Amino acid sequence: MVVQSSAPLTVPDTFRALAEVFSGIKARDIRQESGGTQNNAGEMFPTGVAAMLFQMGPLGNHDVFLDIGAGIGNVLAQVALTTKVGKCIGVEVRYDLCSLPVQHMRRHAVTYPLLRKVAMVAGDVRDALLSTQVPTSDVTIVSTKHFLLKNPRSWI
């Protein structure tokens, strides 16, 4: 697909772009080694992100989107490609996972220049001074999908 435009993509075009950008990332790349602390990357499907964005309404260039637990950055990429958001920032606790999406998005930034709005930071959000340091102090929208369930079976 040859896009090279800075106008937001349609949802179908975004789905195709996401498939192109992230097709090189395999399940084995994001699974944590056996015996780890359960920091597996669980990604949102593009249809779920599209529904979330629809419910939020239009995002403008003054908006800064923060994704806590960004995983492979697919949510960040979709927000960048389908909205007029000014910047998309992802915080991912797994250092080994953080560089992978950055490489894939940089590789496709010529075709999809809106991916240049995406930045990823490796670190634990509990240790970050998000509200006092630029660029996260400018955040207007926060997305988080990280839940730690000590014993979900006890809820049944």
Automatic annotation (TrEMBL):
<dbReference type="GO" id="GO:0031151">
    <property type="term" value="F:histone H3K79 methyltransferase activity"/>
</dbReference>
<protein>
    <recommendedName>
        <fullName>DOT1 domain-containing protein</fullName>
    </recommendedName>
</protein>
<dbReference type="InterPro" id="IPR025789">
    <property type="entry name" value="DOT1_dom"/>
</dbReference>
<dbReference type="InterPro" id="IPR029063">
    <property type="entry name" value="SAM-dependent_MTases_sf"/>
</dbReference>
<dbReference type="Pfam" id="PF08123">
    <property type="entry name" value="DOT1"/>
</dbReference>
<feature type="domain" description="DOT1">
    <location>
        <begin position="26"/>
        <end position="105"/>
    </location>
</feature>
